[in-house]
Amino acid sequence: MNGHIHRFTSLFRWLVGPLLSAWVASRYGAGAGLAVLAIFVAGPALVMLPSFLALRFFPPAPGLPAAAWRDLLAAWWREVIAVTRVFNWDQPWRAQRFPDHLPADTRAPRGVMLLHGYSCNRGLWNAWMQRLRADGIPYIAVTQEPAFGSIDLYAPTIDEAMRRLQALTGTPPLIVAHSMGGLSARAWWRSVGHAPDRIHRILTLGTPHRGTLLARLGSTVNARQMRDDSPWLLQLAEEEPHNLGGHFDCLYGHCDQIVFPSETALLPGARELHLPARGHLQLVFEPQAYDRAIQLVHAAPVDPGIRPQPSAPRAGSDPARYSQTMP
Fold first, then answer.
1. Residue 234 and residue 212: Cα distance in Å, rounded?
2. 124: pLDDT strictly greater than 70
């Protein structure tokens, strides 16, 4: 179902758009036809621009300056490229291009579980799947369905994949999750009783851990769950152990046009990794995100009761928080 939605929207934009433009040109002239075509081609980019510019007026996470105009424009352009790639190619047409990689003779210390975000599918991770296979690291990337159902419904699919990876290597996998996927990981862990032997670490990329204002515009079940004051999020947090953040690395950016205010992407006690001038989807394609995942694959388990100390604290940041700004 998820892939069908993406194929339909992609075909609508790239087939219906030119056909409609041709019809308008035949009726009202070439200028009108080109204007309609420009709307289909450039419309999504122009629609996204105000959401980036508005971030200039939102308070950043503690210790960060307000996003500069040049950073917001750079983030917008990077996001246009990422959105075009993901929603018009990888997810509609190449979601099954790279199968899960579960080699019986693997020597990797652990596998990687890849969880996509809202309105996406496993095709989001195509670049990661290529690199993980080349690096000899087992992985499973699932498509979370129903696409617009409750986040709790994804737990059984995640649990089955986590068990397969752990059976392969003998160690709990690393979870890498984009956006809503980080909440799916938390909901899954709650469903297994927060068992410490089922989890290594969770790397979240732009996850609305404390909700996002933008979700107030959504009407689907999982969109409503991601609202900043949703009963679902409040109950999830209430039922989690106090040291939950010790299992998390939270990569985020104050130019994220989807998850804002930016500090909602952070969990208390987690390692905080800030990427400037990147939009929401672009976080997936940053080399720093993949590099951090590989570090965590090879890292020894961390005692969540001990907070790691930063090697270089961010200027102006709270010294009690582990934080790092990445280039």
1. 13
2. yes
